[in-house]
Amino acid sequence: MPRINICKYQLTKLSMSFNGVLALAKIFLGVYTLSLFPILSACYSLGIMIAKYFAITEHKRTTKESISSEEIERRHYRCYQLIGVVILVSSLLFIIYSLRLFIIQEPLVKYSTIGAITIAAVTFFEIGAAIRGVFLARKKEDRLMESIRLTNLATALISLVLTQTAIMSFAHGGDYTIYIGCSGVLFGGIAAIIGGYMIVKGRVHMNSEKSVYKRLPSN
């Protein structure tokens, strides 16, 4: 069973720290502007940080312990499923907040043109890199790295809502809260599907593994 390359492992630790710093910055921004949107986005970043922590911890355990490749695969799938739960729950909370925007209008953060373009460029780069990473991890059958890439993809999808908010803050003169709500439901739903897919995939593998074990001849 392949294991996470040490370089990728270190980059994952770095990105996890970045998620924590980004979450704190969003919380500060939300408090400063009296807007719940950045705070909720911060909560999503914290959820993603927790998901990556699960992957890093599982990598450490399976690297240090002398266990069979079958046991490593089983643990990786279990961690894969757990990360899917984190993504699903975080995405559902984001959807609930987005639905709230259809009923209650609240002040949204204003961004400059340069700031909005920068956010958009970073977001689209993240999406491209995440999609490429998912395919590479699937090709190598590296479930832990695949879970990290899927986590990055879910984060990038949520960031699209922030990108829309940034662009519309200077390009749209009227109230655009309802558009942000629609985008939040759409991209939050796609992120939730990613989490659900990971849960189902992990469960299917665990069930098939149990079926194989039951078919083994007893001594």
UniProtKB/TrEMBL annotation:
<keyword id="KW-0812">Transmembrane</keyword>
<feature type="transmembrane region" description="Helical">
    <location>
        <begin position="111"/>
        <end position="131"/>
    </location>
</feature>
<dbReference type="InterPro" id="IPR027469">
    <property type="entry name" value="Cation_efflux_TMD_sf"/>
</dbReference>
<feature type="transmembrane region" description="Helical">
    <location>
        <begin position="152"/>
        <end position="172"/>
    </location>
</feature>
<feature type="transmembrane region" description="Helical">
    <location>
        <begin position="178"/>
        <end position="200"/>
    </location>
</feature>
<protein>
    <submittedName>
        <fullName>Divalent metal cation (Fe/Co/Zn/Cd) transporter</fullName>
    </submittedName>
</protein>
<keyword id="KW-1133">Transmembrane helix</keyword>
<keyword id="KW-0472">Membrane</keyword>
<feature type="transmembrane region" description="Helical">
    <location>
        <begin position="77"/>
        <end position="99"/>
    </location>
</feature>
